[in-house]
Amino acid sequence: MVKVYEVKNKNDLKKFISLPYRLYKNDKNWIPPIKKSEREYWTRHPGLKKNPVKLFLAEKDGKIAGRIAFLINKRYNELHDKKTARFFAFEAIDDKEVIDQLFEKAEAEAKEHGMNHIHGPLGFNNLDHQGMQVEGFDWPQTMVSVYNFPYYKDHLERLGYRKEIDWIENRIRLNENAIKRGKIGRQIIEKRYGLKAWQPANKEEFISVTEDIFKLYNEAYKNLPYMVPLDDEEIEFYKKSYMQVLLPEWAFFAREPEQNKIVAFLITMPSLGDALRKAKGRLFPFGFYYIMQALKKPKEIDAAIIGADPEYDNKGAAVIVFEKFHEVMLKYGVDTFETGGVFETNKPVLANWKNYDAIQHKRKRVYGKSLS
Description:
Low-confidence stretches: none
CATH architecture of the largest domain: 3-Layer(aba) Sandwich
Helix content: 25-40%
Number of strands: 14
Largest sheet: 14 strands, mixed
Distance between the termini: 29 Å
Order of helices and strands: EHHHEEHEHEEHEHEHHHEEHHEHEEHE
Strand content: 25-35%
Radius of gyration: 21 Å
CATH class of the largest domain: Alpha Beta
């Protein structure tokens, strides 16, 4: 017998957060997130107080067997004149009854709030780990992507959920052609538009420009699917979250010197997958050590996010940041990076990989269902 109930207290939340650690315990490709960060997300994210949000657990035979988060992103609905709910943080055993009842609960909540559509996995904004993996299960998860069991897709489609859009991910190796073209491109862009590569000298300087970065993110991403602009509270939340692991040396910017204005950014990080697997979700006693070693001696790089001021989209700002990225990769003797999800419709960003040795190896998806 399956029992589905709402998370109401700290103990319930602990069960909600802990479930993936049990489900994926023996899966070598999954990355255990830091539990402290998970707790902070579900207790301190500004979206929790601005939107209807409910977390649900499914229990079967006395054990937690599944979870799902229901939310309505009010700002998204206002911007797009929608009546849409979201599901998020779905995890479950391969059990039809468990999964059916979790989604029945989420859909019932959506209808109760007057929604006529539900889609996901989607969080409060595009900086959350969104989408459901549907291809590439033989590859290890990265920090900038998601991972889930292959049977999730089958159950959602059985329940009437259909594809809305996919993100695709690439594994990319730096080669002589990319290096050469990057250098030539930078020289042309510098001469034609005066753009210059820039990196913060230290953590303090990096932190000093984070608000500029997030504001540029809002502008660069404003027309992408599911985008909701970050407000000041959310900027502060993500600033505190990301500054713990991001390093100035792996952050790349293009500046317009006359206005001293950042017009493009590429935020990357040394791959922490193996370190976090060793840490098993805990910073102490050894997790912090594993992470620091991975940051100091990177083997591969995760390209987390790239964006440009729309005014400079066609002026080669991306060339400036990638050429500097090549330089730092070569300095560390690293030749491989993985991209986060790029919408399959985002042809300008996907075109960046044509000069590299690139393979499209993973795919994740947003599923939607009409409730009317």
